[in-house]
Amino acid sequence: MCLTFDFDAISVWLGSFGVATPAYVSRGEFAANVATPRILDILEREGVTSTWFIPGLDADTYPDVCKRIRDAGHEIGHHGYAHEGPTGLDEAAERDVIERGLDALDRVLGVRPVGYRSPAFDLSPNSTRLLSEYGFTYDSSMMGNDFELYRCRTGDVIHADRAAEFGPELDLVEVPVSWTLDDFPFMEFALVPPILLPSSTDVKALADRWVGDLDFMVDEVPHGVFTQTFHPQSIGRAGRIRILERMIHRAKEHGAMFSTVSAAANSWSSDARNAKRETAS
Questions:
Q1: CA 122 to CA 242: how far, in whole Å?
Q2: E-strand spans in the chain?
Q3: Whether residue 101 has pLDDT greater than 90
Q4: What pLDDT is stored for residue 194 in this prediction?
């Protein structure tokens, strides 16, 4: 069970939605100053270690709460600088964003992350190659599986008139995600034309679906990794935080092991290497 938190405070509104008005900035303030401490209190009480993907801008803006995340033993991952989606960036610009994010996490937290999650769950044709070049060991942005890890590729060529050509695999491990296991699109209201997030009015039903997915994995993929994406400003507001508690308690009922994403990726890589050696011998 990998509980992950995208610490998108101000950065998500600036980088993905292009707004920095007082109302949207205040939602980022809520994420950092109110919701994150609530979440950290629950994780401490439940004895759960998690992974936090932190944009460099938010680390620079809210260093104290980010240090609390680090000091509580949670993993810190890279999440851009100002929540920039890499699909609209050329290679030089994408390199710059990676480097600015690395600089901020090192400067503020003294951390060199080994994991990356793309803002908005998307990658450019250069992303996986660049992540490998910069020494990342895993990515958590793609959806080629649900509960099983796999190797990232580079150099795919997707044609509109013939079969796709898939490039070679990298050592970079993919820890897959899903929009259906992400709280933000279901819980947030945002009206920033042409983007509209209508928000969900039935969060209990959403929680039931999440528990159902976890139960399915336990029954059908018992060796799998359940990776859930939360955002403090979404899951940390009022009664919605009870959903986080419910997921933790259900996982404990199943006897699940709570893990950082890096630990899960390292374990998978070790198992894959051992299996390869056994096959070769």
A1: 29
A2: 2-6, 51-54, 75-78, 115-116, 138-139, 150-153, 169-174, 189-192, 195-198, 227-230
A3: yes
A4: 87
Q: What is the mean pLDDT of residues 85-101?
A: 97
- DSSP codes, 40-80: HHHHHHHT---EEEE-HHHHHH-HHHHHHHHHTT-EEEE--
Where residue 6 falls (left for φ over 0; alpha for ψ -120 to 50; beta otherwise) is: beta
SS3 content of the chain, % helix, strand, coil (to 5): 50, 15, 35
Six token digits for residue 220 = 């059908």
Taking the CB of residue 49, how many other CB atoms lie within 10 A of it?
16
Of 4-8, 216-220, 233-237, 274-278, where does mean pLDDT reach its minimum? 274-278
Cβ atoms of 86 and 123 within 8 Å: the answer is yes
Using CA of residue 154, residue 152, residue 113, residue 8, what is the dihedral sign?
A: positive
Q: Residue 278: pLDDT band by 50, 70, 90 thresholds? A: low
Virtual CA dihedral for 110, 103, 231, 198, nearest 10 degrees? 170
Residue type, 89: L
- State the residue for tokens 């992303």: 127
The model's pTM is 0.96
For residue 167, give both structure tokens: 């490039």
- Within 10 angstroms of residue 34's Cβ, the number of other Cβ atoms is 14
More confident residue, 30 or 278: 30
* H/E segment holding residue 185: helix 184-187
Output Rg (C-alpha) for the chain, integer angstroms: 18
